[in-house]
Design a protein that fits this description.
It is a single chain. By secondary structure, the chain is α+β, with helices and mostly antiparallel strands. Helix content is 32%, strand content 34%. It contains six helices and eight strands. Helix 4 crosses helix 6 and helix 5 crosses helix 6. The longest helix has 22 residues. The relative contact order is 0.18.
Length: 210
């Protein structure tokens, strides 16, 4: 049987976006879209505490509407900001109603992972190519069993915990610091983290170690 649902991983150099000037790795932990206002709200973690990233890039680039909040702590910076919707890759993906699995900015390139139907692939990739240089595209059949069912908050908490060294030994950040960064209580942070860890361990035991 032909699988009509595809998993796409693509790497794009988006020249008209702030991402093409970002010298550090950054993780998108949340996206909220407002097409009628022509902006999307992004929350990212940057693997650097250098102030010039915020003052010289995020606050001045034409693709950024407004920087709402900046927090710095051990090894990283959290930025909550508004980005232009039109002309963004996120805008293209949301317009096409794809399932976005993740977004990473690395080596001044945007790395997107998403799921869509095979009939929409050509159009989606065409629109992405109109925005920037596509350096890599990998298309595979989508198999839902490959992904444990984490909630959005579980994904956010796990991403923050991993990127800020909470899972390292010794830890490079505390639960209190990460909870404050996310705007939630320590108890809520630990609740979502433990749920995510339990789901990942259960998934591994059933599908990998079995």
């Amino acid at each position: 049987m032909i699988n009509l649902i595809k998993h796409v991983d693509t790497i794009v150099n988006h020249e008209d976006c702030w991402t093409s000037h970002m010298p550090f790795t950054a993780y998108t932990i949340n996206l909220e879209v407002y097409p009628h206002k022509n902006y999307l709200r992004s929350r990212i973690l940057i693997e650097s505490t250098e102030d010039k990233v915020i003052s010289n890039l995020m606050k001045t680039h034409r693709s950024v509407v407004k920087v709402i909040k900046v927090d710095r702590f051990k090894g990283g910076t959290y930025v909550d900001f508004l980005n232009k919707y039109k002309g963004s890759i996120a805008g293209v993906l949301y317009d096409k109603e794809v399932l976005i699995l993740g977004n990473l900015i690395k080596e001044k390139e945007e790395r997107w992972s998403f799921v869509t139907s095979s009939k929409n692939l050509r159009e989606i990739l065409g629109e992405i190519k109109s925005l920037g240089k596509v350096n890599k595209v990998e298309i595979t059949d989508f198999n839902p069993i490959l992904y444990p069912n984490l909630t959005e908050w579980e994904k956010r908490v796990l991403t923050v915990a991993y990127s800020h060294g909470y899972l390292d030994y010794p830890r490079r950040a505390t639960a209190d610091e990460l909870a404050e960064l996310l705007g939630i209580s320590k108890v809520t942070f630990l609740y979502h983290l433990r749920n995510a860890q339990r789901k990942l361990i259960e998934f591994s035991i059933k599908n990998i170690l079995a």
